[in-house]
Amino acid sequence: MPSERRRQDAELTDRISQVRADSRGACGSPRVHAAPRQAGALCGRRRVARLMREAGLTGRCRRSRLRRDGVLLIRRGHTRPMTPSPSRLRSSRRGPDLRHGRRAAWAGCALLVFFALPACDRGGGDRPWPGAAGGARGDLFERASLADGSRLLVTTEGGVRIVGTDDESVRVDEATPAHWDLDAATPTLDLLCDQGDKRTKDNCGAMPLVHVPAGITLTVRARNAGIEVDGVRGELTLSTVNGDVTVHDSGAEGTSQHLVTRNGSVRASGLAADGVSAETVNGDVDLLCTTSPATLDGVTRNGSVRVTLPAGAPPYKADASTVNGRTVVDVPAPTAGSADHPRRLTLRTVNGDTEVHRG
């Protein structure tokens, strides 16, 4: 028996086919998706494109553009003007601007999709956003199931706080508008940000709280605020532009941790990993590890790099350097001729100190 999602996909494909038939093939996936979204419907763009691709449906490509006075013709893929044929010139002088026809076709697609795609729920309805579990908030995402060991991508134009929990669900606070996308290669939670929308503007530059299963592999892409992660035991890939990356009691042996910002510091305590890469431009890198990683790279330009390893950490081949600061390496070096593959530390900055100690 087909699942509920496959049943919805089949229903949505039938309605997309009807929309294209009514528009004589003029509506491609961007118009099929954009029109209901502007009206408050919440189908994923990738979902519409995937269903159209699986059904062999494509929109008609616009191959030429004619200026209003009928003098200049430019085709897609060409940057130089081309002389239009006499028939095209006569047509343009007789009739209205071709751009009006395109606008009418776009509007026709919008109207057709708006009335023909009830499978894409509209904001304020009783059904959740795609992939979300139903709840009292109707169209807003509340929670979704995600097993330990799964991958999760969190995206936001602001910042985010993420806490690992023992249950197998992803959930957000009641006041946090978010979109859950299962059509992507990796399940994606997008914390919506639009300064012009009163429902989502509070996410911009804020730090909403997200609960995730503790054992997942987590990727976070933020922009204008920091990232804080606490109690996530899987592999982490955290990146932002203007804010700090802060990690507490996270990671696990055998995993790799990638912590990156540009204008902010990278700080981690209770970090477990087999490989660590921490990088910034304007800020400090401060790492306190509970395990001895095989490789560790800490890089900044305007700030210091400080690493603390466990008290019983094995020998490391250390490469620590600075231009304007001091360098302290307080870990043993591998002995000459040792058969063991040396563990490696690379600490670099320009304006600041580089230090590595055993705790």
Would you kindly provide a written description of the structure presented here, covering whatever features stand out?
It is a single chain. The protein has 359 residues and is an alpha/beta fold. The protein has two domains: 113 residues, no CATH class; 216 residues, Pectate Lyase C-like, CATH 2.160.20. Helices cover 19% and strands 31% of the residues. An eleven-stranded mixed beta sheet has the order 3-6-9-5-11-13-15-17-19-23-21, with no helix packed on it. It has a ten-stranded mixed beta sheet with strand order 7-8-4-10-12-14-16-18-22-20, with no helix packed on it. A two-stranded antiparallel ribbon has the order 1-2. β7 and β8 form a beta hairpin. About 21% of the residues have low confidence.
Topology of this protein?
Layout lengths: L3 H19 L6 H10 L6 H10 L9 E3 L6 E3 L10 H9 L3 H19 L26 E3 L5 E6 L3 E6 L3 E4 L5 E4 L6 E4 L17 E5 L3 E5 L5 E4 L5 E4 L5 E7 L4 E5 L5 E7 L2 E5 L5 E5 L5 E5 L5 E5 L6 E6 L5 E4 L12 E6 L5 E5 L1
Parallel strand pairs: 4-8, 4-10, 5-9, 5-11, 10-12, 11-13, 12-14, 13-15, 14-16, 15-17, 16-18, 17-19, 18-22, 19-23, 20-22, 21-23
Antiparallel strand pairs: 1-2, 3-6, 6-9, 7-8
Helix pairs in contact: 1-5, 2-3, 2-5
